[in-house]
Amino acid sequence: MSPTRLLIASGSDSGYFPLLRDTVLSILAQRRSVGIGVLDFGLAPDQRAWLADRVTHLVRPGWDLDFPDRERTPETRKAQLSRPFLRRHFPGYATYLWIDADAWLQDWRAIELYVAAAGHDKLAITPEIDRSYKRHYKRPKVFGWTLSWKCYREAFGWRVADRLGRNPIVNCGVFALHHDAPHWEAWQRIIGGRLSNATFRATLDGFVSPDSDELLAPYAQRYFDVVADVWRDWGSDMAQYFAQNAYPSWDVSEEAIAATDAYIERTDPPPALRRLLTEGRDDVARALRCRHRDAQSA
Q1: Which of 50, 171, 273, 283 sits a CA distance of 20 to 30 A from 32?
Q2: Does residue 279 have a pLDDT over 80?
Q3: How far apart are CA 75 and CA 123, in angstroms?
Q4: Does the pTM of the predicted model rise above 0.85?
Q5: Domain spans of the chain, in order of start
Q6: What is the C-alpha to C-alpha distance for residues 128 and 185, in angstroms, rounded to an integer?
Q7: How far apart are CA 47 and CA 81, in angstroms?
Q8: What is the CA angle 135-137-143, rounded to 5?
């Protein structure tokens, strides 16, 4: 493909800029003529100046979607929400290849493989397959279901879960799509909030996946920031599901217990929401007591 028909896109805030810088340099080392587009999610002026001399497009995107509490949402959230709208931010290209700021291009043949696989109507993306991923891909058993299997079950039922739950997940850190591929519109509909209840449940369950404590840590306070609005504005079934399943149970600490107590005292939530918050708090307290006992017996 002619370099003028391909755009390689990435993005970062100021904290990720050292990684983005290496990504850009690795691309330029392979093809200096290829179009590079960078989405600015909070770069510093000197970082923007460095990029301006080396990339084709440097765009500070607005919010591509409207959603509750948007004005209090960190700008870095655009890193997920802007990708379905690459054609809007970087118009005029035949194929768009996204590469996360923490990736690094070693061989241009990888780009050619992605572009060829995408063609005109397919998504080129790579599954995460490795023999060390037993936790993800072993056959689901009673009381031993994998996260992927649970997500498929919530969205599509047991039979589909058993058929697809062991398949490798795909890594959205690098993907390629042709301008005319149908995936863009479908992706925009999904993240625009037009999700079925089953799909929403599966998405939320995947978000609060086990063994992701460090990644989830910033969202503990966000839960308390939005749960009252969710309870007020959403239907009762989905509001209860969110309040119960998005509760930051991954934060097993005295601080988490205190945060819940403070929220209940400060806001005096409705009885049903208070019950769900109290149950979440009690689960964390039990987990904390177990940890203390384990530490004493070790």
Answers
A1: 171
A2: yes
A3: 27
A4: no
A5: 3-128+171-191, 134-167+196-204, 208-297
A6: 25
A7: 22
A8: 60
Return the structure tokens found at 202: 């599966």
Using CA atoms, how far apart are residues 187 and 179, in angstroms rounded to an integer?
13
Structure tokens at 283: 């689960």
Q: Cα–Cα distance between 36 and 172 in angstroms, integer?
A: 18
Task: Map tokens 């089953």 to a residue.
Answer: 198
pLDDT tier, 158 (very low <50, low <70, confident <90, very high otherwise)? low
Q: Which amino acid is at 114?
A: Y
Contact status, residue 32 vs residue 108, Cβ threshold 8 Å? no
Cα 14 to chain center, whole Å?
Answer: 19
Q: Tell me which amino acid residue 144 is.
A: G
* Beta pairing partners, 11: 39
pLDDT in tens, 219-264: 778 888 888 888 887 777 778 888 888 888 878 888 889 999 999 9
Q: How many CB atoms lie within 10 A of CB 254?
A: 10
Listing DSSP states for 27-74 in one string gives HHHH-TTSEEEEEESS--HHHHHHHHTT-SEEE----SS--TTGGGS-
> Which one of 1.10.8.140, 3.90.550.10, 3.40.190.10, 3.50.50.60 gives the CATH number of domain 3-128+171-191?
3.90.550.10
**63-109 pLDDT, tens per residue?**
887 777 788 888 888 888 888 899 999 999 999 999 999 999 999 99
